[in-house]
Structures are given as C-alpha cells and as structure tokens.
Amino acid sequence: MPDEQTVAAVDCAAEGQPVLAFAKEYRFLSNFWPCRVFNGHWYPSVEHAYQAAKCLHKRDEVTIRNADSASMAKRMGKSVELRPDWAKIKLEVMADLLWQKFVLNPELRARLLATGHVDIIEGNTWGDTYWGKCGGVGHNHLGKLIMLMRDVARHIVENTYAPAEVVNSDGRESRESAG
C-alpha cells in the first residue's frame, strides 16, 4: 500500500501539474533528504557527498562528511578550497549521486516514478539559478538531472526481465521461468 506522500505525488502526476519546489510531499527530492550514498566513503545525504566531493583538501572532505546535518554540510562547502577540475565535473558528480539515491534505492525510486511525467523544478527563494529556478529564472540542472534519473528508473523497471511471465506459445511455462 503506498504511503500518503506517494499518493499525493500520483495525484499531482495525474493532474499534470509540475513539481515547483522540493517541499511537502516532494521534500524527498531535496539533496538534504537522508539517504546513504557512496563517493569514496559513505555519506548520509547527497548534499554531504556533493559538498565533500568539491574539496581540494582531505581534511575539509572529512569535516563535511561528519557534519551533523545536510544544511551544515552545505554551509561548510561554501568556504572550502575547490578542487581545480570542479567546474568540469560537478554535474557528473551530482548525476552519480542522484543515480544512487533514486535508481538504486527502491523506496525513493518508487516515489520518484510516482511523479509520472511532470516537470520537476527545483524552485527556490535563495537565488540558485544554476541548480534550480528562482522567480522562474534559472537553468534547473538539479530538476533536469532528477527527471533524467526518473527516465532511467522507468526504463529499468519497464525492461526488467520477469521470469514468471515467460510462457511458451502453447501457454505452458518455459524452462527459463521454472526455477
């Protein structure tokens, strides 16, 4: 039985309304949402791992990994010395972390898939026009990556081999499925 948040997401998807902010029933889309991801070490959220990944110095990475909250990790990440290739790899790093969060995690994958095909926009009021949109203006890279992960997850789910469904032309179960 789906939980209330999944039902709300399905209702929104059925109405075709875009997700305009990562709040309320869509809070799970936020990088602050607790979920274990791996990037050389285990992290308690995508935000922790992303902020640690940009660090030039190992000590900063460790400090961010051990931050008490995702918001604290983000604050710490604003004052670190960036690795020289960060601008070139940050989208790839984020995509990998979102893959782990939404494609490999069955609960979060189901919740993401429940959003259907609606646009997902990381709407914000703090002026982030790179990862989201503020006042309707911005690149929305985070929203686009999450929609990409939803497409990948949908493709995997739709194309996963289900042995119990394999039958011969005469209607009998095939040897492949008779485990």
Features:
179 residues; mainly alpha; Tetracycline Repressor, domain 2; globular
Describe the structure.
By secondary structure, this protein is mostly helical. The protein has helices at residues 4-15, 46-53, 58-65, 70-77, 86-103, 106-113, 141-158; strands at residues 34-38, 42-45, 123-124, 133-134. The chain has one domain: Tetracycline Repressor, domain 2. A two-stranded antiparallel sheet has the order 1-2. The longest helix is centred in the middle third of the chain and has 18 residues, at 86-103. The two termini are 28 Å apart. Mean pLDDT is 89; it is low at 1-11.
Topology-level CATH name: Tetracycline Repressor, domain 2
Please name the CATH architecture. Orthogonal Bundle
How do the helices and strands follow one another from N- to C-terminus?
HEEHHHHHEEH
- Assign an overall shape: globular
- Give average pLDDT, whole number: 89
Can you identify the CATH superfamily? YbiA-like
Number of domains: 1
Largest sheet: 2 strands, antiparallel
Helix content: 40-55%
Specify the CATH class. Mainly Alpha
Rounded to an integer in angstroms, the radius of gyration calculated over CA atoms is 19 Å
Helix and strand composition category: mainly alpha
**Uncertain regions spanning at least 5 consecutive residues:** 1-11
Number of strands: 4
Strand residue content:
5-15%
Outline:
The protein is mostly helical and 179 residues long. Helices cover 45% and strands 7% of the residues. It contains seven helices and four strands, in the order αββαααααββα.
